[in-house]
Amino acid sequence: MKSLAEANFLLTSIVSKIPKEQIRSAMAATQAIYADLASRPVERNCTGIAQCCHFRLTGKTPHLTRGEALTAWAAVKASGRKVLPESIDGACPLLNPKTQRCLIYAGRPFGCRTHFCGAAGGPMARDSVIDLIHRLETIDAAAGGDGPKPFASALREAEDL
Q1: Which contacts of 100-104 are long-range, i.e. CB under 8 A and separated by 24 or more positions?
Q2: What's the pLDDT tens digit per position in 106-160?
Q3: What is the model's pLDDT at position 102?
Q4: Pairwise CA distance, residues 142 & 64, whole Å
């Protein structure tokens, strides 16, 4: 049986063999989905209270496909960070604790774009975005992903690519 360190090394070796062009392609396709989503009329009234970003309170943590994780990780790096911040209060690690604003808003994952707290109108209906979800799944498979992973795990995996 391999130690955890050996298993992590093997995983990193496997995932880091993904060609850079494949990573760029996955990110571009994911960003196209985000643009398609933004063009759809959605009646929500988000007031920026960030309740949806407090995972421990909501009991919901976004799960990211590989394309989403790569896009979010690129936004983390663009913000000047080299590691994923730790969250001590159960909030999203990318929620600024002082301003209650997302540190990667433009690169935030699909779940963050479609989930709204009850005060803002609630989450978007799955059937209204199922075509986009299927596209994200296709990108995930093409990029060597194996399905959505919890937020922090997905970002840490993307960090190693």
Answers
A1: 100/48, 100/49, 100/50, 100/53, 101/48, 101/50, 102/53, 103/76, 103/79, 104/72, 104/75, 104/76, 104/78, 104/79
A2: 999 999 998 878 778 888 889 999 999 999 999 999 999 999 999 999 999 998 8
A3: 93
A4: 15
pLDDT of residue 122: 85
User: Looking at the whole model, is its pTM more than 0.70?
Assistant: yes
Separation of alpha carbons 19 and 35, rounded Å: 25
CA distance 147 to 140: 7
| Residues 75, 35 contacting (CB under 8 angstroms) | no
- Reply yes or no on whether the pLDDT at 31 is more than 70: yes
Other Cβ atoms less than 10 A from the Cβ of 113: the count is 19
